[in-house]
Amino acid sequence: MEILKTRALRGPNIWTRRTVLEMTVDIGPAATPLVDIPGFEARLRALLPEVFAKSELPDDEPSGLASQASMALVLEHVVMALQRAAKVPVSFSKTSATAEPSVWKVVVEYREEAVARAAVDAALQIVDAAQRAHVFDVKATVKQLRSMDENLRLGPSTGAIVRAAEARGIPTRRLNSGSLVQLGWGVRQRRICAAETDRTSAIGESIAQDKELTKMLLRSVGVPVPAGGPVGSAEEAWEMAQEIGFPVVCKPQYGNQGRGVSGNLTTREQVLAEVVKEAGDE
User: Pairing state of beta strands 180-183 and 190-193?
Assistant: First the structure.
């Protein structure tokens, strides 16, 4: 089986409104009915016992994996299963025939393109291992995919906005490796960056990044804010924590996207450690 071409479709396309990888796959000799490959299905299930439920394997004919398209379908389902095992929320996939009997289009949804491409590479190795009765460490692969996704995915504030948009049927598209995201399409599209929108003023952004100034301005107009204040040392932080009462939160005075924030601190050791860590990061 060989992938002839892979395209990342980053906007509405002929398959779906979601972001997908479209692969042109030549299954070649794999066009042979898979039931003719002794033990293939059993070995595939053995390689994927936790991430590949029985119901997720293609079962488009009474004989299970017997159709000519099955190897392309297997690739589709393995890629999706690996992404879901890595906690990537994807659900759309499709396999479609082309004019050439051995060539198929395999389409899989993705959230982070690099993660999906890595899942495709791993899926090819898993299918090959099942064909050749070789060993493959699926758990290690899933762990790597999950780590990659955690490093690449949107931060907490941007992610929350994107999930809220999707829950309302608003399509989203990430525009860079950071937190710049497009909501909607065409003339109605809007853009956000972290918790800012394309209508956020530069002054508002500057104020929001200074936590103490933000609290002062909110307090001046009657908006309740949590007790606290800036500290100059770890010991000052411990004294303020005792004055406020536990648990407490420690965060840098300047920053965004939740970086450097630690919550539910209840002991002197925890408070001192967080302040020292922040001072070291600066």
Answer: antiparallel
Q: pLDDT > 70: what percent of the chain?
A: 85
How far apart are alpha carbons 89 and 207 in whole angstroms?
A: 35
Alpha-carbon gap, residue 144 to 146, rounded angstroms = 5
Helix (H) or strand (E) holding 180: strand 180-183
Which pairs with CB-CB distance under 8 Å and at least 24 residues apart come from 266-270?
268/238
CB atoms within 10 A of CB 185: 13
Tens-place pLDDT, residues 114-128: 999 999 999 999 988
Domains assigned to the chain: 2-152 (no CATH), 156-197 (no CATH), 224-281 (3.30.1490)
Of 269, 254, 258, nearest in space to 210 by CA: 254
Measured distance CA(148)–CA(137) in Å, rounded = 17
Q: pTM (2 decimals)?
A: 0.61
Average confidence score pLDDT of the chain:
83
CA nearest neighbour of 183 among 207, 166, 160: 166
- C-alpha torsion sign, points 56, 21, 163, 154: positive
| Other Cβ atoms closer than 10 A to 250 | 21
Number of CB atoms found within 10 A of residue 176's CB: 8
Q: Is the dihedral of CA 93, 78, 146, 48 positive or negative?
A: positive
